[in-house]
Design brief:
This protein is mainly α and 122 residues long. The protein folds into two domains: 71 residues, Winged helix-like DNA-binding domain superfamily/Winged helix DNA-binding domain (Arc Repressor Mutant, subunit A, Orthogonal Bundle); 44 residues. It contains seven helices and no strands. Might take part in the signal recognition particle (SRP) pathway. This is inferred from the conservation of its genetic proximity to ftsY/ffh. May be a regulatory protein.
Length: 122
């Protein structure tokens, strides 16, 4: 169960970064299968192809996403940057209250926190 959930999360993350680089059919199949939770048979009916054809399209699309990530590393970089941002915020929040009340530091903390919240949507 965890393995399947991890796969769905991984494909979803890579899809967010690289879906524009896929063919229309690959993008549609991934969207239908992983985001809309349609079965292979339902997708096959939608496209007028066999379940095996859908399976092949999905596997190739997943492989393509992984290849893009291996070459470009956008998802890994995004994840690393979010972790670093969270660590910076945590460090700033641990400063003594007298230091945190400095206007520029307080504004920086607010902006960093807002940036971390905004990136959760990607």
């Amino acid at each position: 169960m965890d393995r399947m959930l991890n796969k769905v999360l991984r494909v979803g993350q890579l899809y967010d970064f690289y879906n524009a680089l896929l063919t229309d059919k690959q993008r549609d199949c991934l969207n239908m299968h992983y985001l809309q939770d349609l079965s292979l048979a339902e997708i096959a009916d939608e496209f007028g192809v066999t379940r095996q054809a859908v399976h092949d399209i999905l596997r190739r699309a997943e492989q393509t996403l992984e290849e893009y990530e291996e070459k470009l590393g956008l998802a890994a970089r995004y994840s690393d940057e979010r972790k670093l941002l969270a660590e910076i915020i945590e460090s700033l929040e641990q400063l003594p209250p007298s230091v945190r009340q400095l206007p520029k530091l307080d504004q920086a903390l607010i902006k960093l926190s807002s940036l971390l919240e905004d990136t959760r949507e990607v």
